Amino acid sequence: MGDVSLPKKYKAAVYDKPGSISTKIEELDMPEPGPGEVLINLTHSGVCHSDMGVMMNSWFALPAPTQAGQVGGHEGVGNIVKMGPGTESAAVKVGDRVGVKWVSATFSGYYTPGTFQQYVIGPANYVTPIPDNLDSAAAAPLLCAGVTVYSALRKSEAKSGQFVVILGAGGGLGHLAVQIASRGIGLRVIGIDHGSKEKLVTDSGAEAFIDHTKGNAEEEVKKLTGGMGAHAVIVLTAANGAYASAMDLLRFGGTLVCVGIPEGDPLPIAKAYPQILVAKAQRIVGVAVGDRQEAIETLDLAARGVVKSHFRTAKMDELTSIFKDMFEGKLQGRVVLDLQ
Q1: Which residues make beta-bridge pairs with 284?
Q2: Is it the case that residue 329 has pLDDT exceeding 90?
Q3: What is the DSSP-derived secondary structure letter of residue 59?
Q4: Which residues contact 223 (CB under 8 A, 6 or more apart)?
Q5: Which of 141, 165, 157 has its CA nearest to residue 302?
Q6: Whole-angstrom Cα distance, residue 255 to residue 285?
């Protein structure tokens, strides 16, 4: 299949006032794929909490502030419409439906044009093929949220039949983590979140739910695990308070997996005492996102119906209001932009 006819201009949502919640629709010039690259006509893009952190310059660890005009987004799905030089032997071709992820050779949506636009450049050797029987809108959130929690669960080393506590279980990452853990890996999931998200968490497969605004999470987890604590605790929320409680939920030999990135000045993980880590043989690991193989495996789970993203679709011009709802904690599941 040859390259298709392309317009000279296309629409994109940019961060027009970095440091605040503000986006603007602009028309951009059509890019040309360079050596080893492909041009993708995007149809959908997920909206991630990480995008808000980049937009608001609220992540201490980023090396430089986000610039005005940055196109955000890193959960894009679309069709390849043009191949760059040197891609003759690539595993993908024009017409293939592929995904663009957060770490896509560079960091998509941060000093590299992201997926809140109708066309994007991606590396031919790193875009992810989308299974034929998986809807594009449903696939988009899996390219960051799905693959990240899949990787986190793998790195926790928790085995089938063991307990895993998921902090932030009703969020965009959380509800996917609950499904993958319970239905894909066979873990016994204890979900912790605000009480308003209990139904989503239990419907996703959690064996038990704890409302963090009521009672004592440590006591509840110990009660559910025979007084031992969980084999793994995965923190998906960006709250320092969640990290502060996490170590108390682990058993001997347990693993804390850090995924959510708190904003503002960095704080150490409370109660992560070397003496306790040594005496209880516990581990702390960090996960930013999964690799290409983990992305393929995550999409396969979705294609087989093991995991299903809870999402709603919205238009590109609704992005600012979506971020406002995200900032206020009003979102359940994910939001996917329809870019068509």
Answers
A1: 256
A2: no
A3: B
A4: none
A5: 141
A6: 7
Residue 184 gets the label, from left (phi > 0), alpha (psi -120 to 50) or beta, of alpha
Average pLDDT of the chain is 93
| pLDDT surpasses 80 at 35 | yes
| Global pTM value | 0.89
The Cα–Cα gap between 295 and 87 comes to 22
Residue with structure tokens 């293939």?
Answer: 96
Q: Give the pLDDT band (50/70/90) at residue 114.
A: very high
pLDDT tens per residue across span 58-84: 877 778 899 999 999 999 999 999 999
pLDDT over 80 (residue 254): yes
CA distance 253 to 65: 39
Strand ranges inside the chain, DSSP E: 9-15, 23-29, 37-47, 70-71, 76-83, 97-100, 103-104, 106-107, 119-123, 128-129, 163-167, 188-193, 208-211, 230-235, 250-258, 283-286, 311-315, 334-338
Query: What one-character DSSP code corresponds to residue 112?
Result: S
Burial class (CB in 10 A: 0-12, 13-18, 19+), 63: exposed
- Over residues 116-128, the mean pLDDT reads 94
Q: Which residues, in sequence order, are CB contacts of 219 under 8 Å at separation 6+?
A: none
* Cα–Cα nearest to 128, from 289, 297, 296, 304: 296
Asked whether the beta carbons of 168 and 235 are under 8 A apart, the reply is: yes
